[in-house]
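Quick one: co-fold with iron/sulfur cluster.
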Amino acid sequence: MPVYRSVVCPFCGCLCDDLEITVEDNRIVKVRNGCAISTSKFLHHHENRVENPLIDGKPVALEEAVKEAAEILKSARRPLIYGLSSTECGAIAKAIELAELIGGVVDNTASVCHGPTILALQTLGESKCTLGTVRNRADLIIYWGCNPLEAHIRHLTRYSAMARGLYTSGGRKDRYVVAVDVRETRMKRVADLFLKVNPGGDYELLSALRAVVRGYGLDVDEVSGVPRDVILELAERMKKSRFGAIFFGLGLTQSEGRHMNIEAAIGLVADLNHHTKFVLIPMRGHYNVAGANTVTTWQTGYPYAVDFSRGYPRYNPGEYTAVDLLARGEADAALIIASDPAAHLPYKAARRLAEIPTIVLDPKRSMTSMISRVVIPTAAAGIEAEGTAYRMDGIPIRLKKLMEPPEGVLPDAEVLSLIIEEVMR
Amino acid sequence: MMELRLKPKVSGLSIPLEAEVISPDVIAGKTLREVEELRVYHGNRAERLGEYFEVEGEVAAEPGEQLIVVEGDVSWVKYIGAGMTAGKVVVKGDAGMHLGSKMSGGEIIVEGSVGDWAGAEMTGGLIRIGGDAGDLLGAAYRGSPEGMRGGCIFVEGSAGYETGTGMRRGLIVIGGDAAPFTGAHMNGGVIFILGRAAKRLGAQMKGNGSLIICLGEVEELLPTFVYDTTYTPTFMRIYLKTLSEKLGIKRAEEYIGRPFRRYRGDRAVGGDGEILVVERG
Ligand code: SF4
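Sure, here it is.
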């Protein structure tokens, strides 16, 4: 009964690397150290698998499915390659190679989560550090528009609020914790200070904090539902901290203001660095969405929403992002890799996916596989295949292979290589 | 001016056409046959302009003498007049994204509405839009520090999000309503809003004489803009007269002599720009 130690968990952007997994008869039977999400995902890994390559719902040989996929992509004028946040970096690199070859658009799921973050980082730059540094040094931690208790369960204990580090040996009691959200979440119980901000009012609150940190007064009694005194006090506390960190999530990136909210947050952190050390780290959701951005950047110069239709990469979120391309009815074929846009994208975009010939590479059945013309099962990275993934703070971590994939099932990167060969033929 | 007419042969393509060749700079000096052969891009295929448009009329020797009339709705065509330096383009309908982006001279008149990024990073010339403008009118492209650097844009209808983002110089006049974040990161230049101005006006505006003038209602100003005075600026008279005489916006004259409330900001970035809001009443 092989027991694998120091296993990296491929289920969220924390990429916890201390799991112990027991495999029996090529099935995962025990998970130690994983959070509830991770344990459940590992234990149910064998369920709901795509068993065979399919064309129009009928089982076919892999070669046939690859051929059909290549045919679809070659004849398309505006093919879209999308997903990529739940696979390893090798597959992402192959997907970009394919996009260039077919003159398509390649986008990853960052465009519907932290795309605005990236836009803002490109405009203003970034003050960041690793999660280890936060664990060892941060005495002030702010969670803004995110709820790690639900989405990144071990974040608090491994990296942030509760973690004990080199200069924070007291753990939770060595830190002051603030949570900001539009509704009271369970973070209220974790935090020393919980700020309930009016929905859509984050930008104003961040701007006000910035002005106060810069030494201006505030002429108003409250900003977005937060009283002036509280804002003044928080600004003071931020300036006086030894090392501060802001973690933020979709509550900030996907609410009114989007990338401008993040610009305001980056600006605040930049201003605070005149007083102390302060950093900003996005809470990335899918385990390798940060890798999707990193690989796309090193290959094309841009992090997402890259268009190769003119033979060279061009970048413009809003124009070349998958949601927009689909909702406007532009994309005339799609290749989806390790993602389920039919379930997650807005209705108009999802409907377009069902209208055009769609190809999906995924270990599991999904809404997208149900509406796809071609379905190719693949080996799950981090369980049945090796590879590299990037943690939310940008640290690359090697994923392990724990067991063999079902017979005849290849990793994403290999299937993509087959499609590339077929397109070039 | 010599008039060249482009009649669309198709309507409403779902995959837009990229046709930066629809510009006096490219067309002047060519024969009609050569114009038909100009390259346009439909998705990942390079094709002939003549496949999408009937080309007729006359070609001028110099761009400054060239008038191009696009007869019909071309909301599916991107980059019309992009980068042009002289001459005139008239679109008798809607136009797609990036119209007149990076242009430095000449004039574009669109009778209908335009897509996003119209006049983005333009440095000179005039764009007139009869309908509405999309998002990021006269804005900076992603990753670029400066938006519009000169010239004038007049939209009769409303303008979308982040109009004039990163604007450095030049004039944008919005006849209708302005969506949130109009004039964000502005560092120079002037924006007039005749309709309703949505919130987050001038967000992170730096200064350098940046000025947003609201002749209509203002939804809400950021808490980081601070009121300092109410006055009747003398320069306003000249501005309003110019709008009326040069751009034909007669109703601008109604505001001559009216007092304005002045707000300064954006303090979030230590900025010293100004938002002037006309006194109601
Ligand atoms: S917090 Fe995330 S990475 Fe860590 S065990 Fe849970 S799901 Fe896996």
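If it helps, Chain B has a mean pLDDT of 96.
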